[in-house]
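[Meeting: bench + compute handoff]

Bench side (C.D.) handed over the final construct sequence. Compute side (W.E.) agreed to return the predicted structure before the next meeting so the bench team could plan truncations. Sequence as handed over:
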Amino acid sequence: MKPIRFATLILTLILLVTAFIPLAPKAAATQTQTYTNIAPTQTILDAMLGRHLFAPLSVIAPVITLRVENLASRDYACTLVAQTPKDWVTMQRRQSFDAVWNLQNTGTKNWGKTGIDYAYVSGAKMHTGANRFDLPNDVGPYGKIKIRVDMESPKTKGYFTTVWGLLNSSGAFCRVTLSINVNR
C-alpha cells in the first residue's frame, strides 16, 4: 500500500507544479499577455489519505500578466565599444580614477551635444563631479564618442557597481555600467 501512496504523492506534486506553468508562448516586446491555466489537482492530504487522484477537484491558477518594454529604439541606440577600467578591477579604498566608456551610435538619429546628456542613473555614487553632463560634441549615426567621468572608489571594502546612461527628452536610451572590487 505504501508504494501506491508514494506514487500518488509524486503524481500530485507534478500536477501541482504544472498547474501553475503557463501553456501559452511568452509575450513579445511592448505587449501585454494574460494567461490563465485551469487544471485538475489533488491536495497532498487527499493523496496521503488514499483518495482518488481524479476526483472532481479543480483549481484556478492565478492570472499572470507579463509586460516587456524595449528601452532601445531604432532612432536612439548605442553599443559599448570599450571601457576603462575593465569590470571587477581591484582598487584601493578612496582611489581616484577616470571611468571611460567608448560608445557607438547604432541608431538612426544624431546625438546632439545640447539634446543628449550622459548622466548618473543608479548604483554606487562613485563620481566626484556633477550627476549630468552635456555631450562634448555631436555624434552622427555609426559615429563614436568617448565619455569620461571622474570617480573615486568607496572607503569600504566590497563590490560596487555604478550605472550611467545617455538621456534624451524621453529618458535613458543607452546604459553603461562599471563594477569594481575595493579590496585594500
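W.E. noted at the follow-up: The radius of gyration is 26 Å. C.D. will use this when planning the next construct.
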